[in-house]
Queue: 4 jobs
Job 1
Amino acid sequence: MLLEVFRGMVNESLRIGIANGASSLRKLSLLSYNQLAQYDSPSYKLCAISRAAGILAARKKSIRRGFTTRTPYTFRQQFVSCYGFKIRNGALEFPVSRGKRFSIPLTKRVLEIISQPGIKVRSFTLTQNRLSLCIARDTPMIECTSTVGVDRNLRNLTVGNDQETSRYDLSKCVRTANTTVRVVASFTRGR
C-alpha cells in the first residue's frame, strides 16, 4: 500500500512539474507540496518531490542534449525515504501511517556492516522484493608526504616536486596530430 501511495505522489509531482516547467527541487516543492496533502502518507512528501525533481532534471538534460524524451511517469512501485526511520532490534523501522510503524528484519551481514564505527545509514529504498540501504562512511585521513605538480601546455609537459622537475617536449605529437587531421579530412573531400 505504501509503495503505491509513494508512486502516486511521485507521479503527481511529475505532472505538476511538467505543467509548470519546474525541474528544480525548490520550485517543485513550492508548487506540489500542498497538492500532495490528499495522500495519506506520514511526511514522505519531500522524498517523493525529490525523486520527481531528479527525474525531471534528467529529462531536461536529455532535451538540452537533443534526445527525444517521453513524458516521465514512474511505473515501478518503490519507496525512498531519508526521514523518520530507525534501526532498532536488528530491524529497519519506519512509519507507514499515523501511529503505525513497519519493521523489516535485517540480515546478520547487513547488521555487521552498519554497526561498524563511522558508518551511518542515510536513506533506504524499498521495492516489492528488495531493500537497499544507502550508507555514509567516514573516510580515513591520509597524511601527504609529498606533492607533485603537472603543467600541461600545447607543446610541452612539465612534471615536478620540490626535489626534481622534468620537462617533456610534445611538439612532435602536435605535428603528428595536425598531420592526422589533414589526412583524415582529405578522405572525406573526395566524395
Job 2
Amino acid sequence: MNCARVRRLLYPDPSRCEVTVEHAEALAHLRACDECRKTVEARSEWSRELKASLGIEPAPDRLRRKVGAIVATPRSALLSRRAMQVGTAAAMVLAAVAGWLGNRASSQAFFRSICEDHAKYVNGGSQLASSDPRQIESWFRDRTDFGVRVPLLESSELLGARLCFLKKRKAALIFYRKDNRPVSLFQLNASDVRLNGLERSVIDGAPLWRMSYRGFALAAFEQRGVVSVLVSDLRESELLQLASTARLRSAGY
C-alpha cells in the first residue's frame, strides 16, 4: 500500500476511521513509515485545533426559541386546559426538528456524492483541456443555465473542464493541480442546494462551509446564485484557503 493511499484512508484521524482490512494494512504501514506517521500526526493535531477554535454551529434561533418555550412550561400548565395546545406546539417543534435533521442528512449525502465524483475523475477526464479561464467559461456558456466563473488559484495549474451531473443537477467541473495533487472545482445553480449539512467557518469575514469524507476535504461557498465546491486530498486548511481565494477572485468578475 502506497503512502498516498494510507494518508487518504487515515484522514483526518486514524482513531475515527472505519475499521476494515485496508484500515489495518494502513496502520501497519504507518508504524513502519516515519514520513506517513509525521504527516498523519500533524494532520490530526491540526484538525483538532481547527474544530476547537471554530466551536459548534448552533441550531437556528427559531428552533431554539420553540424548544426553550416548551422546556420552560410549568408542569401544572401541562395539566391544565392548555395541555392540548402545548401538546400541539410540542408536536410542531418535533416536526421542525425532524425536518431540520432530515434536510441536514440530505445535504450531507449530496456533498458526499460530490467527493465521490472527484474520486471518479481524479485521473483526468476533461472534455476540454485548457489552461485559459476565458476559453473554459465560453465553453460552458451554452451548456449550463448559470454563469461559470473560472478563478486562477494560487500555486495551482488549471488543466481543463467537463460537464457533469450531481444527483440530476447539471454542474460545471473544473480541474486543477496543486503540489501534484488533483483539485476539483464544482459549480452549480444554488437554487436547490442546501449548505446546512456542512460545518460553517468564517475566513476574511465571509462564510465557508466544509466537511471531510473518505480522505477528501471539501470547502464550499455561495456567490451570485452559484454554489462553488472545492474537493481535494490536500490538508483542510490548504483547501479552505484555496476556497477563500476562489471566492475573492470570482467576486472580481
Job 3
Amino acid sequence: MLSVLFMLLACIFLSYILSEFSKKIGVPSVVGYILAGIILGISPIKTFVFNHSGLDILYALATLGMIFLFYYIGIKTTIVSIKKNIKQSFLISLFNTSIPLVLGFIVMTLFLGYKAEVGIIVGLCLSMGSQSISVNVLEELKLIKTKIGSLLITTGAIDDIIELVLATIFLTYIDSYASQTGLIDLVFQIALFTLIVYLFKIVIIPYILEQPDNKKSKVSRFTSAIIIMLLMAVLAENFAIGAVIGVLIAGILVGNTIRNDKKIPVSEKEDIAKSMHTIAFGLFIPLFFIWVGLNIQLEAITGNPLLAIILTLIATIGTVGGTMIAVLLNKETLKQGWLLGWGLNAKGDIELVIASIALSLGVINHAIFSAITITALITTIISPIMFKHALKSSKYKSKILTSQKKNNSQ
C-alpha cells in the first residue's frame, strides 16, 4: 500500500511542479504533465518509483482520466452547437484525415521503398489525432464554450468515428483473428448502439438523474452521473464502439438533460460539471498524460531521427494543411484554418496502439515504430504551444472572446 501511495505522490507532485512551471513560461500545462511522465520513465527513476502492480494501478487511473475527460467534454457540449458545426466539422475531418494518410502511404512506398502494408499502417497512424490534448488546452484557456471550442470538439468527435472505422479495417486486414468484428458486424453494432443511445436519451438518463430529488442530495446526483458514465462506457466497449466515444455521447446527453429538465433544481444545473471538472483535472487527467509520457522511450529518439523527422512533417503538414484547405472551402480565413489545424494536430493514443499491434505482428520494424513514437511525442508537445501562439496572434481571438461573453451571459 505504501508503494502505491508513494507512486501517486511522486506522479502528482512532479506533474504539479512542471505544469505550474509550464504555465509560467507560457506553455500549456499538458506539456508539463507529459514531461513528468517522460522523467518518471527514465530507467533508474522508474525502477525506484514503480513496481509491477503500481504500473497496473497507474494504467487503470490513466484510463479513468481519459474517460472523465471526454465525459466532461460531453457535459459542456450542447446539441445545438453540434448541429451548428456538423457540416464544417465533417469537411475538416475528411481533409485532415485523408491527406496525411495518403501522404504517409506515398512517401513510405514510392520514396522510401517499403511494402504497401507498411505504407498503409504508417498513413493510418499519421492521420489519427489525440483530442485529449486539444481539449485539455481548451479547458485551460477557458474556451470550451466558445465557437472555436465547439468546432474543435465536434471535429474531434467525428475524427474519432473515422479513426474507429479505419482501425477496424486495419485490424481486419493485417490479422483476421486479431479482431472478431468484421465491417458488416460493426455497422450492425453501431446501429444497435444508436438505438440504445436513443433509449438512454428519452428514458434512462432522465430517470436516473431525477431520482435524487427526493433526497435533496447533490452527492447522489453526482453518483448518478458517474453511473451513467460507466454504464455507457461498458456498453460502448461491448459494441466495439470504444469507451471514449460512449462517454462523450453520455456526457452530451447528461449535459442537455440537466439543462432542460425542469424537475432538476436550478441550483444543481452546473454542480455535476463543476464536480466532474474538479476530480478530473485535479487527479485523473494529469495521471493520464503522465502515463502517455511514461510510455515514450527516450532511447527511440536516437533510433532513426531522419525517418522520425519525415513522419512528423507529413503528420503536421497533412493535418494543419488539410484543415486549412477545408476551412477555405468553407469560405473562412486562412488564419482560422491555421488555428484549428494546430488544435487538431497532436497525435497519440490510437496511433500508438495501432503501431504497437503492427510491431507485435511483424508488419513494421522497431525503427518505424520508434519513428511513429517520436512523431507522437513531438506533435503532442508543439501542437498546444502553436495553438496558443496562433490564438494570441489571430484576429479570430476577438470573435472567440465575444462568443465566450455571450455564452457566459446566457
Job 4
Amino acid sequence: MTEYQLYCFAQSGNAYRAALMLNLVGADWEPVFVDFFNGETRTAGYRSSVNEMGEAPVLVHGEKKLTQSGVILEYLAGSSGKFLPRGERDRLEALRWIIFDNQKVGGNLGPYRFLRNFAKPLGDPIVMDFLKGRAFGALAIVDKRLSSNPYLLGAEPTIADISMTSYLYYPPDEFGFDIAAQYKNVGAWLDRIKAMPGWAHPYDLMPGHPLPA
C-alpha cells in the first residue's frame, strides 16, 4: 500500500493542487477516484467516512485524514521540507496568495469552467460574464506580481505557486480563452512550473478523464 492516498478526480483544480504537490515532492502516493459527476460526494457514505464537507480532495496519510487543498499543501511542505516558505513573513505571504487563489483566481475560474462545460443546464450568460470578469481581474493581479518575480514569493517556488496552478493547466477550449497567451507573465511562470521534475498534466495525474459520453 502506498504511503499516501488522495481522493480526487481529473476535472478538479482543487484536487490538482494536492496531486501535483505529491508528485513534485516525490511522494509515494496513489489516487482514489471520486465519482463527483454521479454525486458521490453528496452521499451519506462519503460524508460520514471520507469528508463531512462533501468535497475533494482528501489526503489520507496513515491515521491522518486531511481536507482543504491549502491544508494539504501546508502539511506536505512540512513533512517533505520542500516548497515550504521560510520564516514567518514568507509563511504569511504564502498564506495570503493561497487565500487569494482560492477566493479570486480558482474561486472564479473553477465555477466558470464548471458552468461552461459540465453543468446541466449550462451557466446563465450573465453569471458567466460576471465570473469571467472577476477571474480576469484576479489574473491581472497575478500577472503583475510575476512581472518582477519568477515565483509568487520571489526567486524560489513555494506552496503558494503550487496552489495557484489549480485551474491554469486545463485546456484553453474549456475556458474559451487562453490564459497563458493572454497573461504573458503567468504563461512564463506556468512554463517554469511545468519544467520541474514530477510535473504532470491534471488529466494525466488523476483518474476520470475523459468523462463518459
